[in-house]
Amino acid sequence: MAPIRTWIGSIGLQAIVRQASLLSDPHVDPPDLVIVCQSWPDEFPMADVTTALGRWPLAIWVCCYGAWCASDGRTRSIWPISVRVPVDEAECRLNHVWRVLTEQRGEPLPLTASRDEAFEFDHCLTTPVVHP
Fold first, then answer.
1. Residue 11 resides in a domain
2. Are the CB atoms for 84 and 65 separated by under 8 Å?
3. What is the pLDDT of residues 45-101, one digit of tens each?
4. Per-residue confidence (pLDDT) for residue 76, from 0 to 100
5. What is the rounded distance in angstroms from the CA atom of residue 91 to the CA atom of residue 64?
6. How far apart are CA 6 and CA 10, in angstroms?
7. 106 in Cβ contact with 128 (< 8 Å)
8. Which domain holds residue 81?
9. Distance between alpha carbon 130 and the CA centroid of its chain, in Å?
């Protein structure tokens, strides 16, 4: 998960980074972006994930998963497809999400997005807008 830590460090003072233990405090403002690092399958129980997604439905969620979790998208449905990204592709996703948040460039990927929509978001395959 070193690339994720490096990316978080690179945004530096542009963001307030909180540990998971502080996120349960009801006096803390809801986050705009939630980054989850998953190292092994079933690391997070379905009930905890559902509760967290429901608590901050307007946040942009990114679950960066390691090699041991590669088949989770086919064999498990704990995290929505739109949230999951392999750790080796996470920096690209995080950069894209950061531009959406800070520069209002594009729309965030909704939690209900399909696998095709997630692929398009990650690989910037959006249809160009043609102006007459």
1. yes
2. yes
3. 999 899 889 888 899 999 999 988 888 877 778 999 999 999 999 999 999 999 999
4. 77
5. 9
6. 6
7. no
8. 2-15+30-122
9. 30
